[in-house]
Amino acid sequence: MQKRIDDYGQKVCESIQMVQSTLNQQQLIHLCQDLYHYQKVGIFGLLKAQTAAMNLQTDLLMLGKQVDSYVSYFQQMEHILSADENDLIIVFSYTGSYFDYENLRALQKKLEAPKIWMITSAQQEYPYFVDEVLTFQSLQDQGSHPYQLQFIASLIAQEYFRRYKS
Fold it and tell me: Matching InterPro entries, A to Z (predicted)?
């Protein structure tokens, strides 16, 4: 049992170190600037990624920044599709597949209105309506997910505090 605990702990630590060495700090700062300037913000993710979204939501609430988040994918999509140019949408998506679950062909025009950030492991392509991407390297394994996203959510809250609340 102890060996499994040690091995898993080591994998989690390695995944966090991977974020430390590959996260684009300028993009993180840019995301915090958007968080500060937009009044209407929705933060979403699927399954484990939603835990990172909820952690960021509660951290921001403690800093006086009210944002929306929903566990239900249906409610998330309802919020995103009703958003306009005054909305900021932040999507945590470990694999970058968040928008793959919804048939959006007929709805893509609506996705052009809000500013959409995606926080995801680095890949080649993103949906055209995603405006900004904050990426990191990942092994795409259980030892990395959701810990890498949780770590990034905490970094966002810390940077937001440092820039706008300290």
Answer: SIS_dom_sf
pLDDT digits (tens, 9 = 90+) for 81-130: 999 999 999 999 988 888 887 666 667 777 788 999 999 998 778 888 99
Residues near 75 by beta carbon (within 8 Å), at least 6 away in sequence: none
Q: In whole angstroms, what is the distance from residue 90 CA to residue 117 CA?
A: 5
39-72 confidence digits (pLDDT tens): 999 999 999 999 999 999 999 999 999 999 999 9
Domains identified in the chain and CATH numbers? 2-164 (3.40.50.10490)
CA proximity to 69, closest of 53, 92, 49: 53
Give the separation between CA 55 and CA 2, rounded to whole angstroms. 29
Structure tokens at 153: 């959510």
| Other beta carbons less than 10 A from residue 12's beta carbon | 16
Main-chain dihedrals φ then ψ at residue 88, nearest 5 degrees: -110, 130
b/e sequence 93-116, b meaning 16+ C-beta within 10 Å: bbebebbeeeebeeeeeebebbbb
